[in-house]
Design a protein that fits this description.
- The protein has five domains: about 60 residues, no CATH class; about 45 residues; about 100 residues, Immunoglobulins (Immunoglobulin-like), CATH 2.60.40; about 50 residues, no CATH class; about 150 residues, Rossmann fold.
- It has ten helices and 20 strands.
- The strands form five sheets. Strands 16-15-14-17-18-20-19 form a seven-stranded mixed sheet, sandwiched between helices. Strands 5-4-8-9 form a four-stranded antiparallel sheet.
- Pfam families: DUF58.
- Keywords: Membrane, Transmembrane, Transmembrane helix.
- InterPro entries: DUF58.
Length: about 450
């Protein structure tokens, strides 16, 4: 096809009465319409952008002030006036005039300009479930004239808090404190603070934004774990394996020197005794590397409380591992979580949303084995609806030599320990029992 604009290409095709192979042919109507649509779109694009820009700049700020009730009153006024004109009903005309007058009076309530300096301050942007989240709004009159009483609105999640401002002199500052409920794990969007002007009937509503929105993270509740993260993590030297290495910290044996060996590992006492060079040989060690598999399939949990307890248990174990500077990976059906710092981990834990899904805890365990092949300790955090057969299948995906444990959350159950083959199953009935069940695992 020739290059150029769609109009040029359409003109060239219309000039071709024959096909390229020389046989008689004709343009397909769909091709003609396609070229025509492209030409029309390109021709109208600049005009459309200009109209859209003018709409957003001039028309929308004015029309958005009218509320749904205001549009209804305005439509009713037009309808009543048209009805009165058509049938000669003076009552309908009078009602139309009254509605129109109310609309005009409402305009006077939203006119004017306010000059505020607004500072939204959250004392803490990250709190745990149940902790107090306190904030403040400081409003100052930055104009040279007094400002009439007004109202400020502060969206907090799906709710809206209203703050009433008194009459303020120039440079006067008014401050209000507020608290945010933190009964549930969530990311709550606080703000933006907006001033609102409206008439008594709320036909018109004009708002001005004064701040940017801020995120408040309500982290899952966690518990501190005494001592080691779970009692099953070895010391910093790691867990020895059967693989031999020429440089490590777990001594294995001595062997003959081979050219290229590091001379720092020559054992000089044995060399002097045997009259030949001998070097140390080590067993490769594996640093404690925790991998946590947290199932967010709500079909595997008996209640929302049970699901939240599972999130808190996984967060508690992960947070302790980060405190002890262990390597950590946390995986859910939606993908891995950030584990660089405790804040990143808890932020991602806060964003977790459970939902029914086809992927089960067994599928997640297989994904974890492929994603974190170098793990030394694996946790499966699951709900009470996960059966022993499913736990056995999940444990089968763990490579040999890796310690595997399942934290099975069941609200109200006593903390117990059981074994399914090489898998240690810990039953958790309350989050405060987490340290107890982990000590049982170490016993």
């Amino acid at each position: 096809m020739s290059s150029g604009t769609p109009l040029t290409r359409l003109t060239e095709r219309l000039k071709q009465p024959f096909a390229r192979n020389g046989s008689p042919g004709a343009l397909h109507p769909s091709a003609v319409w396609a070229e025509a649509r492209n030409t029309a779109a390109m021709a109208s694009a600049p005009a459309w952008r200009a109209v859209r820009g003018a709409w957003l700049k001039y028309a929308w700020p004015v029309l958005s002030v009218v509320s749904v009730l205001g549009w209804s009153v305005l439509a009713a006024a037009i309808l009543l006036w048209a009805t009165g004109q058509a049938f000669g009903w003076q009552e309908a005309k009078a009602a139309a005039i009254a509605a129109f007058v109310m609309f005009v009076i409402a305009v006077g309530f939203v006119l004017g300009r306010s000059s505020y300096g607004v500072v939204l301050d959250l004392a803490r942007t990250r709190v745990a479930v149940g902790d107090s989240a306190v904030g403040s709004i400081a409003v100052s009159n930055t104009s040279a004239r007094p400002l009439l009483p007004a109202a400020l609105e502060l969206p907090v999640g799906s709710a809206t808090a209203v703050f009433h401002l008194p009459r303020m002199k120039p440079q006067q500052v008014h401050e209000d404190l507020f608290t945010i409920p933190t009964a549930r794990r969530a990311v709550i969007v606080v703000g933006p603070v907006r001033s609102v002007r409206a008439d008594p009937l709320h036909l018109l509503r004009r708002q001005v934004l004064w701040t940017e929105p801020e995120d408040l993270f309500v982290h899952p509740r966690t518990v501190a774990l005494a001592g080691s993260a779970a009692g099953f993590i070895r010391d910093l030297e790691g867990m020895p394996t059967t693989d031999l290495s020429s440089a490590d910290v777990s001594f294995h044996a001595l062997r003959d020197y081979v050219p290229g060996d590091d001379r720092r590992h020559i054992h000089w006492k044995t060399t002097a005794r045997t009259n030949k060079l001998m070097v140390r040989q080590f067993e490769e060690t594996r640093r404690a590397h925790l991998a946590i598999s947290l199932s967010i399939n709500t079909d595997e949990y008996a209640s929302e409380t049970e699901f939240e307890m599972a999130v808190s248990a996984a967060a508690s174990i992960g947070r302790q591992a980060i405190r002890e500077q262990r390597e950590l990976d946390v995986l859910t059906q939606k993908g891995p979580l950030r584990c660089e710092t405790g804040r990143n981990l808890l932020d991602d834990m806060t964003r977790i949303i459970g939902a029914p899904m086809r992927r089960t805890a067994v599928d997640l365990a297989r994904t974890l084995a492929d994603t974190v092949p170098n793990a030394s300790v694996v946790f499966f955090v699951v709900g009470s609806h996960v059966t022993a057969t499913q736990l056995r299948s999940a444990a089968a995906s763990v490579p040999p030599g890796v310690r595997s444990l399942a934290v099975r959350v069941e609200a109200g159950a006593s903390p117990t320990r059981a074994n399914i083959a090489d898998l240690t199953v810990l039953t958790l009935g309350d989050l405060t029992d987490l340290a107890i069940v982990l000590r049982k695992a170490a016993a």
